[in-house]
Structure formats: C-alpha cells, structure tokens
Amino acid sequence: MAERVGVLRAGLALLTVLALVAGCASKKEKAHDEDLSDLIAWFPGHYDDLAQVQKDEKTGVMPPHEQIALLVRQAQTPRLGHHVFFVQEMAPDNPERIMSQRMFSFDIDEDRGVVGLVYSFVEPVRWREAAKNPQLLASVMTEDVSPIGCELIWKRSGDKLVAGHDPRHCRAGGAQPSGPEASLSPDSLMLAGYEFRKR
Which CATH number fits domain 41-198: 1.25.40.20, 3.40.50.960, 1.20.120.30, 2.40.128.590? Predict the structure, then answer.
C-alpha cells in the first residue's frame, strides 16, 4: 500500500513539473509571437536619417553620416521564408540613385526568440527594378542571394525591439561586433549606427 502511495505521489509530482514547464514554454512562445508580430507591423515604411545628419552638422561629428533614405516593404518571397522584407537604400533626393538592396528575413527560434538574417543579391543589377515592381521578388531563389554577417536575435526592450548579433551563427567573413546592432520602434529604425525616422 505504501509503495502504491509513493508511486502516486511521484506521478503527481511529475505531472506538476510537466504542467509548469508547459506553462513556461507557452508564455515564452507567446512573447516570441508578439515580438515577431510587432516587428512585422513596425518594419515597413519610408525612412530617412535627416535628423541625424543635421545633428552631426550642429555638433561637428566627423565624418558625418551620409544622408540616406530607406524603403522597406514586405516581399512575397516564399523560398526565403514567411516573413521577408525588401530594403532599398537610396539618395533622399534621387530614388534612382540606389546604394544597396537587401532582403531581410525573420523567423522564430523556440530557444533564441526572433531571428533575423540579412541577404545581399548575388546579381544586384538583375533586381534593380524591385522597388517599382515588387512582383519581381516572388521569383527570388536561394541561389540569387547570399546571407551576410551574423544572425540577429531580436528582443523586446521597453517600447522597442533591439537586435544583437549571435556570434555562434555568423557567415564566413561576417563581422562579429558586440552589443546591439539594430533597434526598431513604430517610428524609428537604427541600423549599423544610422538612425532613421519614418517619414
């Protein structure tokens, strides 16, 4: 009889532990889902760094930041993932002067949270019209892009999302800086030291 009671107690203890673990996991998953949902809602838009450039001029920062405009739009590029964005960097006064075009993809890793990856185009000229003709991006294959740098792990910090490099997941030749590399709020984006505001 005592043996049976011991087995029942052990079984109940195990069920309690499993319930606690499941509760923690679902809380964690919900937080990851909320982070990804906000990132997807906040990221698209038109940005520029005019405020930072003006601040550089006033404070004498040398060298000053170059004036840049960004176009960020969601892309239907299934071969790169479910949550993919096209990002074009251009001159603010001349959108035909394209400085770079990249693809950003986001997904949830159960343990690490929201993981972002940046891709450059293998043949940039081929995708030059993507900003005007977003349907072009539906045909992007994995061999058309090359991942660059390290994976970015996005975490909530107050009223924004902040991303830091994951040094264990870097592409060959990718820089491995420490500290946050990007941050995003509903009206601003910081990338590689550039502070962009939504227009």
Answer: 2.40.128.590
